[in-house]
Predict the structure.
Amino acid sequence: MDNEFVEKELGNMLLGISVELGRQKVKISDMLKWKTGDIVKFNKTSGETLDILVNNKPIASGEIIVIDYKFAIRATDILSEEALIEKNKDELYTW
């Protein structure tokens, strides 16, 4: 499929975009013990780029910026097909 076909046929389709700070797996028994003020550690470190998800699938990474007092994200890397496969290996993303 070439880009021209995709743009012509699907160009007006809306996709949900979200930015993900990180992921973590927790046991239900641990989650039931949570209370206000508890801290949950994620798989990313401070300063790392964040995942940009389209329909809950990672497609890029980027850095948070602020424009007109609102959060935005600047894409720093668009993932290749190989990188998308690698991201799926940890089973945190489902296809």
